[in-house]
Amino acid sequence: MKGTRLLHLLFLLFTFASFAQETTAGEYTINILDANSEKSDFGTTFYGDDKIIFSSSRGLSRMKWDGNGQAFLDLYEGDIQDDGSVKNVRKFSSRLNSKYHESSVSFSPDQKTVYFTRNNYLKRKLEEDKTGTINLAIYRAKVDAKGVWSNIESLPFNSKDYSTGHPTVSRDGKRLFFSSDMPGTYGMSDIYVVDIHEDGTFSQPKNLGRKINTSGRESFLYIDKNNILYFSSDSHKHGLGNLDIYATKIYTKSVSKAVHLGSPINTEYDDFAFIINNKTNEGYFSSNREEGGIGFDDIYHFKAEPPLYIACKQKINGIVLNKKTGKSISKALVTFLDENDKQIDTYKTKRDGKFHFNGKCDVAYKIKASKDEFSEDSSAFVTEDDPDAKPNIKLALRPKEVAVVSKPAPVVVVKPPVIKPNFDEIKVVRNKVIVNINPIYFSLNQANIRKDAARELDKVVAIMKKYPALMIEGGSHTDSRGGDAYNIKLSTKRAKSTVNYIIKHGIDASRITAKGYGESQPTNRCTNGVRCSEKEHQQNRRTEFVILNPEVLGYKKE
After folding, report:
1. What is the CATH number assigned to the segment(s) 426-553?
2. Among 141, 284, 342, 438, which residue carries the largest CB count within 10 Å?
3. Closest listed residue to residue 105, CA positions, set 135, 79, 138
């Protein structure tokens, strides 16, 4: 037996006493590193493409930790060889290493900022709670022009009363994930996330929830370029014993179910600190497994063939309605298409008019519905990057007029359109009855609501409150630059953005729909291949609010 593990005594307990979702699982080939020592070596992090940083108690310090009689942990670096082995091991930074424990490092994408775990010790001051316990804390440092790490600071959500540790930065540098036993934790330690603002400040910590966190310990985090977060847990289902390595996909608003990496990565011992290079599908993890081990905790190299893949899927629901009566339509043919109008699937509605399809996240789709004696309707949209999202598509078919041929049609005197509201509120443009507001424009390639747009959207809200029977479609359009599929996707996001604004200001979601038309309905000559000024292109980046039932206002089409 190797004896008492530093891992158990420190990084699972987080403290020491003061002495004053479709998933393709990867297959792995592993081998232990010769760079391991007879002491504890674990917790690797990539430093660029050719180096790793890890923690080790191999140092010769006279100061020993009472937990296992070894030296306190320091940060080391080593050079990655072509075969995955590690050579030239040396201490990482005299500025970051202290006389207490350091571990679990993560770097910003530009490698100029480092986040690391240390006992709550800064500026020669050791913080302890009321029981005399020294907890763990996350620190941040910057590298200067000479390559020296400096300006070490404690993160604002640290506390002497609980531990924070195991930081990992998202690939875009905008979020920091970490483990903590702070108040509100479900178990012994949970995974949290904060936003990293452009000025370097942080949002309030948010617990990732019970899909990931258990009554036990979740720790040792690493997020890869595909937004897959790897972590270790001792309380998830399907575990082989003690700490096992799991993975979850991080989405915009949620996470996937945890995926167990299986054997040989996981054993009945502690397996943790998994990292992977998405270019080579190689990486490292740590374990205190008995067979083949060198020290107390050891670092292993692996090759994944194939790497882990977690698909994001969501159920797309909808209903087909009679546009005139508002009632559901049975036996309507609903066709599910991809962004290139290629048919994926079909569905015939039942009596309730409802339909459903299984789609993928963050993908452009088109759904159309048809039935004899009705006009066709369709909707183009983009699914959210969230498996828990529940898109609900409404398609409205207008009954076709039936010609009466038994006797000559009476002569009808057609009067000009009559609109009960005044023309300050409603107008007719290109044979469409629309809300009369100033154009709502968007910046190039953007879908956010500008201040000038918000003022006009408030007018739409006021009109819809004034006429509670109005049904409106928010239709968004792009200019001709960019591909057709991209423009459909962008215009759909713009339509959703405007409609969400209106719903948030008190309008029932059933009264307004969003639809993206891409570049298919320009207001001027600026189609594909036509050279236009920026002002002319801007005229096509717009959202119009079309009244779907103008008859409730007394308007009759010719």
Report:
1. 3.30.1330.60
2. 284
3. 138
